[in-house]
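Handout, section 3.2

Students often ask what a structure token actually looks like in practice. Rather than define it abstractly, here is a full record for Oxidoreductase. The first block is the sequence as you would receive it.
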Amino acid sequence: MISAPAGTPCWEPAELPPQPPLHGVVTADVAVVGAGLAGLACAYHLSERAPGLDIAVVDAGRPAAGASGRGTGLLGPRAGPAVDRAVRRHGPRAARRMHRASLRAVEEVLDLCRRLDVPCGLRPGAQIMAARTPAGLVALARQARVYRELGLDVPVLTADAVRDRVGVPYRAGMLHQPAATLDPAALTCALARACAAKGVRFYGESPLLTVRPGELVGPELVFPHGRLYAGQAVLAVNSAARAIGLPVGSVFPLEVYAIATAPLSVPAYEALGGRTGDALIDAVPLAPYFRVLPDRGLVAGGGTATVPDGLGASRLQAVRERAWSWLEGWLRSLRPELARVEITHRWSGRIGMTGDDLPVVGPVHGFSDVWYIGGCCGHGLALSVAHGAHVAAALLGDPETGERMPWHRSKAPALPGRPLLRAYVDAVGLAARHGR
């Protein structure tokens, strides 16, 4: 039995500032397009550091309507590819810096929650990357060795230690801290309210159609019913960049899936992480995972992904049904108490992916004073907030915007056509599901 209509996240709607559609000619010192975590974090830091700045935030829908409000609330350290691949591609020093940057990003979100006093179910806890298949154990051992060589504190857990923390029969794990779980929609909406309280203007239901160089200064942003002229612009539009014609390389949409359950018994809930607040992530491709909810339910996600472009509505819905069914079966396989638990919510969200697993955070080639943020590859809850702060500092001319990271770039690598891309994603998902 499903309590909520398919496609409905388990997060409750939150209060938002007024956001009329953009009509006519509008001007601003800074235009931020995209009212997700990245865009709102950028607007928030700009308004904090430069109170007199005229800032307009424009969204195709409303704050938290996209990936930032449809995630599963896993706040943990991860940036880019797995650490062993990061070393091979970028070298030990860059891989170490990337991991430490992701740790700082988690701390920044925790600090932001404290400052905003967000009622978002924030609960500190670790993330356990765990394995129960031979392939997963090999991957885990390889990553654990690299973490040790880099001098990074990521302890290895025995099977007993994994079971003690999250109550599932995995054979080994790695403990990632700091980490937490929270309601991502509540955080996104709280950021929107904080921005509005500082004088930031909001416009909703206004998808960006194109960007043009301005005649005098800054860009011209074209919307269905109006135009916005700004001195500077931040386009936190993720995979929508292609439709707008932004030259930021291949940032493609990937649809991912999640389910939530009814409350468990107190003993089952405590055993599955209710006591520690920890979340478990399976060390296989497309990493299925689960976390506990404040109401004693569980959220599970991962394990399947789809390239949605080009799929008709009926075919895409059939794909979603199969993905939710597999995820439900995976969750029920973890413990006997989950065999009959009610699934109350099933939903999907679209994340931005790149061919090398790295985000794109940088100025847009060919446009003066236009920056792009996107492609967090499923790790946007922490990284998006950090990216927004980085771009805000850059727009204000701060020379100390942090050490340059591999994702501080203007474009992602080019990828093959959609059919090949879909075939690759489908093959990875099939391997992950068979490795359950």
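Discussion prompt for tutorial groups: The two ends are 24 Å apart (CA to CA). How would you have guessed this from the sequence alone?
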